[in-house]
Amino acid sequence: FLGAGAILKQRDKNDIRGLTTAASVWLTAAVGIAAGMGREATAVLSALFALVILAIVRPPKR
């Protein structure tokens, strides 16, 4: 499971960490596959879209 090792849950708390990291690992793999298949425009646009999302969107406050 790609990225599953990045997801951590603490036993004593209902707190899960690493979901964004795991999703970023999946995205990196997808961008690499797209580039390897000769779809450079798709790879570049996907990477730029992800960077914008990661820079703008913040996790909700509890």
Descriptive overview:
The protein has a domain of 40 residues. The chain has two helices and two strands; from the N terminus they run E-E-H-H. The protein has a two-stranded antiparallel ribbon with strand order 1-2. Helix 1 runs antiparallel to helix 2. The model has no long low-confidence stretch (mean pLDDT 83).
Shape: elongated
Average the pLDDT over all residues and give the rounded result.
83
The unreliable regions are: none
Q: If helices are DSSP runs of H or I spanning 4 or more residues, what is the number of helices?
A: 2
Distance between the termini: 29 Å
Quaternary organisation: single chain
**Fraction of helical residues:** 55-70%
Residue share in β-strands? 5-15%
Q: Biggest sheet, open or closed, and with what strands and sense?
A: 2 strands, antiparallel
Biggest sheet strand line-up: 1-2
Given helix and strand content, the structural type is mainly alpha
Work out the radius of gyration.
14 Å
What's the count of strands? Answer: 2
Instruction: List SSEs in N-to-C order.
Output: EEHH
In short:
The protein has 62 residues and is mainly alpha-helical. The protein contains 2 helices and 2 strands. It has a domain at 23-62.
Which terms summarize this structure?
62 residues; mainly alpha
How is the topology of this model organized?
Blueprint: E1 8-9, E2 16-17, H1 19-36, H2 40-56
Antiparallel strand pairs: 1-2
Helix pairs in contact: 1-2
